[in-house]
Amino acid sequence: MLLALLVLAVVAVALAAPVAIRLARVRIDAARAARSAAEERPLDYDPGRERRAEQRARQLLRSCVNDEEWAMYRDLGFIRVEGSHPRGRGRRKGDASQGDTPPYAYLLYPHKPIVAYVPADGRLLSEYCVEFPDLTGGRSRLPASDDMLAKWMALTSDESRVIGQANMHLVGRQLDPARVRRDLWRLSEWERRRAGSTEARRA
Amino acid sequence: MKPGHGEILLSEGDPDVSEDEERLIEEFRRQLDEGMWAAVPTSTPGSGRREALMVRDYADVPRGAERVIFFPRAAGG
């Protein structure tokens, strides 16, 4: 009887050992990660610095883009920029003239790929993965609104250059196509409401 | 625009004053040497449209420009 209990205890320990080892490893890794993060943090680390940098970045962005683009970013979290190539990337053969509608446009998100689409029918064309890396070799990122401004300046000044630098993929690699389509719907609703309020002010 | 810091004022001065202009040119070249891109925000009077002008040389900075913004050059993400 004693021998049977002993054997059972050994079997139980043998079965529990891998689970216990895995749990211990997870805890050790978490402790190491926390220690490493604390060591990487400079002694003069200021937790409010990033928030203040973002506030300054928002002011800078606001001073550069027009009122509509700023309101779009403030309300929706992205900015639309029209493509500058007159024939367009997304225009199909036989497409009728769309009047003032540009043949293609981009949606700019902070720290996410740029999405090219066709405003006339909402067709998603591609996503362009682009970033503005820390040239000093660090791992810091631009504040979100500075990243937006960098994309806006690069696209409105030299679209071919920034698109040439980017990695192009079909939409869906990093961004959820359903979310982008929803953003396009939000944009159209936002523009409709904005146009309505502008007309109401004129009347 | 500097990663981790945001906006930093690098230099300021009146381009019509030669000492100021020398300092501005020196800073402009230093930033481009470090691999930054330089852009000047512009606006089209009457249309409300705004865009940026990428400048590769100090001489390309439009007369009367209030500021030149330097930002890290784009790379594939």
Can you summarize this structure?
Chain A is 56% helix and 12% strand. Chain A is α+β, with helices and mostly antiparallel strands.
Write a structural description:
- The complex is a heterodimer of chains A (203) and B (77).
- Chain A has five helices and five strands, in the order H-H-H-E-E-E-E-H-E-H.
- Chain A has 203 residues and is α+β, with helices and mostly antiparallel strands.
- In chain A, helix 2 packs across helix 4.
- The model of chain A has no long low-confidence stretch (mean pLDDT 86).
- By secondary structure, chain B is an alpha+beta fold.
- Chain B has one domain.
- Chain B contains one helix and four strands.
- A three-stranded antiparallel sheet of chain B has the order 2-1-3, covered by helices on one side.
- In chain B, a hairpin with a 6-residue loop joins strand 1 and strand 2.
- Chains A and B meet through helix 2, helix 3, strand 4 and helix 4 of A and strand 1, strand 2, strand 3 and strand 4 of B.
Topology:
The complex is a heterodimer of chains A (203) and B (77).
Chain A: H1 2-40, H2 49-64, H3 67-76, E1 79-82, E2 105-108, E3 114-118, E4 123-131, H4 144-165, E5 167-169, H5 177-202
Antiparallel strand pairs in A: 1-2, 2-3, 3-4, 4-5
Chain B: H1 18-33, E1 36-43, E2 50-55, E3 69-72, E4 75-76
Antiparallel strand pairs in B: 1-2, 1-3
List keywords for this structure.
heterodimer, A: 203 residues, alpha+beta, 2 domains, 5-stranded antiparallel sheet, 5 strands, 12% strand, elongated, B: 77 residues, 3-stranded antiparallel sheet, 1 helix
